[in-house]
Amino acid sequence: MTLPFLDHPGLRFADPGTVSLPLHVLAEGDPLPETLSPAQRTFAGTQGFTAAPGTVLLLADETGKLTGALAGYGSAPQRARLRFPLAGAAARLPEGVWSLQTDLPAEVLSNECLGWLLESYRFDRYATAAAPKARLICPAGVDRARIEAMAEGEAITRDLINTPANDLGPDELETAVRDIGARHGASVTAVIGDELLAQGFPLIHAVGRASPRAPRLIELRWGAEGPDLTLVGKGVCFDTGGLNLKPGASMGLMKKDMGGAATQLGLAHMIMALGLPLRLRLLIPAVENAVAGEAFRPGDIFTSRKGLSVEINNTDAEGRLVLADALAAADEESPDLILCMATLTGAARVALGPDVPPFYTDEEGLAAALARGAATAADPLWRMPFWAPYEALIEPGIADLDNAPSGGMAGSITAALFLRRFVTETPAFAHFDIYGWRPAAQPGTPKGGFGQAARAVLSALPEVLGL
Fold it and tell me: Which of 179, 230, 293, 393 has the greatest number of CB atoms lying within 10 Å of its CB?
């Protein structure tokens, strides 16, 4: 599998010292730059430049030669509706190298630079998709390596989610992990097919056994010292719903059901590219939930790696099953922190929509750090509760756990409670119920595959792990 982000120049800044043109960033009400000539000032006025977000006004000298541009940054209420207000300008500028002229605070400027790079992303594996050709010089005070690592990590996530299931099954997902691991000197192994039963991963095997594409647990390890961080990502490469078959309208986006794995792999890339002083373990249960004679059935009961028995009341609640075995394996090493990401429930979308993923944790310090990281990285999150009174909803009586409680209420919470049962030896655990998809384009975020929570986590890690 080819990951085109590896050689995508638009996801990197132009080299320092490259000849560039000034791009003056103007918020609503800001005066025109004093460096403009009288003719340019008159031109800006006659063109009715309002400094709305994403607007651009090209500037020329008396000979008609391009000398710079104005970029609108809008008003505070306008910016509040956009994650990357300046990114829209990147799509409207002509080819060339630009340097920002602005007094934005360093933290805000860093996010705007990230948005600029992300605006250059296009998924063009199957059809030509023209990307903006305006390049940016990294401004003073912005951590170039960090911004580029985040842009590349997001590109990994988007590429994987956008790739259709005929070209991205469990085997291809393993290849992607191996490619990223090889780039950073990480070790990658996989437990595949019936070997899952021999090595104690019965739930992963049960969900994936009906597909001709063998299920597997993919593991990446990197780093020799520092605190232990384990990332677990749901890798359901396509979800038919199994014998509880999804209706056609609900199946259309199921290529994105490995969005948790894609996001965690993107986050792992960020961590390794930046050389964070920690020991990283990434676990991805990769399966295809198919319909065939070997498919697991409603009413089946399986004993998980943790020893907890699980009654299957809906084969379309398969994500929590594969995660359960992976989380149990993660918990056996008692790392300092386990983070789980999954495109898990429609209930989370009903509650918070596609933009804001909920997260769950019992650790107040971790919750506070994630909230701060989300604000810093323009990567919103919202904390939801592990609501103990709902524990009874996931206890069917005939087995220890029910994978799909009836009634439909509190679906994201009951899924999170289910997953928490498999993490008992680790001091800090958080679960993120992400969507992984942008239904409509915004500056910096085209329609399609979309990373969520990774940058918030990256920002929070130094505080959480004492790096």
Answer: 230
